[in-house]
Amino acid sequence: MVNEDTHGAAEIRLRVVVASHNPAKLTAVRAAFAASFPAATVEIVPVSAASGVAEQPSSDAETRRGALNRARDARSRLPEADYWVGLEGGVERVGDELLAFAWMAVLDTGQRLGTARSVTLPLPPAVRERVEGGEELGAANDAVFGTHGSKRRGGAFALLTGGRLTREGVYAETLGLALLPFVNPLYAAAPDKPNTKPTPCRD
DSSP 3-state helix, strand, coil percentages of the chain (rounded to 5)? Predict the structure, then answer.
């Protein structure tokens, strides 16, 4: 949305609907949009949205589907916006390891879609046992680490790295990648005619 201020200058305002009320997710979305659209004023609007998957997704495909479903459901509930964001955390067993990760999905007012998967986090045996026993990852982390509501703050990333990484930080970086189709012109260029250049990196 573009408005003009009292001096006639163009002002970009973006209304971003986030399919969550989780403070960690909202912080990540705000940071990602601020970095990707530095000239815009961003309004973050949380909304409850259905994932259409299990409370604790247990595969890559199910987790990605949950993020997409949340973004689409958010758009159906609050259609007056510029972007809709779905974030879904999941786990998947690979060999003897249980890996935690998240998928991000971003929709705009047209038909564009941006998705990205976060880095993976190997879970320790005590947490893995609880999750494989049916507990949601956040509850399992709280039980093992003696915390409360950790998924609404730094999450497993912060608990396992001593705060060096956080759920908010990892999600914000992942969302920045999911936003590339909306900010880098190469994504709109024909494959045989890449007549645009990547946007320069900002130091």
Answer: 40, 25, 35
Whole-angstrom distance, CA of residue 96 vs CA of residue 10: 55
**pLDDT tier at 3, thresholds 50, 70, 90:** low
Q: Look up residue 66 and give its two tokens.
A: 């949950």
| CA distance linking residue 138 with residue 18, whole number of Å | 20
**Distance, CA of 142 to CA of 153 (rounded, Å):** 12
Structure token digits, residue 121? 């986090």
> Domains in the chain, start-ordered, CATH in brackets?
2-186 (3.90.950.10)
Out of 29-33, 138-142, 151-155, pick the least confident.
Answer: 151-155
Q: Is the pTM of this model over 0.70?
A: yes
CA dist 167 and 169 (Å) reads 6
The whole-angstrom separation of Cα 133 and Cα 135 is 6
Could you read off the pLDDT of 94-107 as tens digits, one per residue? 999 999 999 999 99
Residues 6 or more apart in contact with residue 124 via CB below 8 angstroms: 144, 160
Q: What is the rounded CA–CA span in Å between residue 183 and residue 203?
A: 17
For 72, the 3-state DSSP assignment is helix
DSSP 129-185: HHHHTT--HHHHHHHHHT-SSGGGTTHHHHHHHTTSS-HHHHHHHHHHHHTHHHH-G
* Rounded CA separation 184/178 (Å): 11
